[in-house]
Amino acid sequence: MEEAPAVYSHNPYQEDGFPLLVLDVNRRHCVPFNEGFRVLHWHDEIQLVYLLEGEIYARVYGEMIQASQGDCLFLNRGVLHHITEKKNCRYHSYLIPPKMLGFFSGSVMEQEDVERILNQPQLIHRLFSAKDGQCSAFLEQMQQLDRLYFSQEKPDHTEYRLSVALVQVWLELLCLLPQEELHPVKADPRHERIRRMLSFLHTHYAEPISLEQIAQEAHVSRSECIRCFHRCLGEAPYAYLKRYRLHCSLSLLQGSHLSVTEIAMQVGFRCTSSYISYFRQEYGQTPKRYREFWAEQSKKDKALPLESETTITEKRK
């Protein structure tokens, strides 16, 4: 069986000499492909989502945030989130390892201006709006960083220039954070609970799972388990599990020759007709039609590669 997308999103460049990961999401197409794309996930990097056009909706735990063209959304490390975009939307997602902002290990900057921010439970996210004049300096620096990263020309010392631009963006972000938000507070235990339960579901989704098993993973009662899911995800545990199983079936429809029945069994459905029915409700078409559509779209993508894909690939060479 193919491995399901993990709730922890991995940065393929984290051991690289320049571990910045930037995703170009254009009309629901992500370049380079990332396992956390459009899946509820978290990661060790700071995330800055810069909107070029359209709108996105970000679910951060139980809160829904809307961002529009010109806005930038800050997501702290370790925060459970899921981004969905409207049609004709484009955004650039910067996943920044904290070590790129502290200059060197053990520095005052690392301790006071990086770790202190990342370890504040109340600083889960912050939306910097293009309509807010106080955010103009930050957004201007973000725009300069974006232009530099996606420039068709590769100037000398590109990585050095990008590092300077990243630090300038971070400095402007620091200046916008109220000091009263930087005092230590106790973390919300509900966030850790939902992460534990989701990790369990993402690992055992293909198996029969009871509500008791999910609750036991976070050491809570069945009723608290249900409340936690509704608070953070807006749906019941089994509703989320069903949708996750459907999501995991997509990669099998795209990249395997397994029959629809075999795929249904592999992702945890015990009845093929139920799988087809749920799939149609979720995606508006049958699994067979989705597979045909994906095959057709893949041929078109190979014939006409995206310009952004070429640009990003060249930058990592």
3D structure, described in words:
The model is unreliable at 1-6 and 304-310 (pLDDT under 50). The strands form 2 sheets. The chain has a 6-stranded antiparallel β-sheet, covered by helices on one side. α2 (136-149) packs antiparallel against α3 and α4 crosses α6 (222-233). By secondary structure, the protein is α+β, with helices and mostly antiparallel strands. It has helices at residues 108-118, 136-149, 158-176, 189-204, 211-217, 222-233, 237-255, 260-266, 272-283, 287-303, 307-315; strands spanning 21-26, 29-31, 46-53, 55-60, 63-68, 72-75, 81-85, 90-96, 125-128.
Which descriptors would you attach to this protein?
317 residues, alpha+beta, six-stranded antiparallel β-sheet, three-stranded antiparallel β-sheet, 11 helices
In short:
The chain is an alpha+beta fold. 45% of the residues lie in helices and 15% in strands.
Q: What is the element layout, followed by pairings?
A:
Blueprint: E1 21-26, E2 29-31, E3 46-53, E4 55-60, E5 63-68, E6 72-75, E7 81-85, E8 90-96, H1 108-118, E9 125-128, H2 136-149, H3 158-176, H4 189-204, H5 211-217, H6 222-233, H7 237-255, H8 260-266, H9 272-283, H10 287-303, H11 307-315
Antiparallel strand pairs: 1-2, 1-8, 3-6, 3-8, 4-5, 4-7, 6-9
Helix pairs in contact: 2-3, 4-6
Order of helices and strands: EEEEEEEEHEHHHHHHHHHH
Which parts are unreliable, with pLDDT below 50 for 5 consecutive residues or more? 1-6, 304-310
* Percent range for β-strand residues: 15-25%
Number of DSSP E strands: 9
The description of the largest β-sheet is: 6 strands, antiparallel
Mean pLDDT: 87
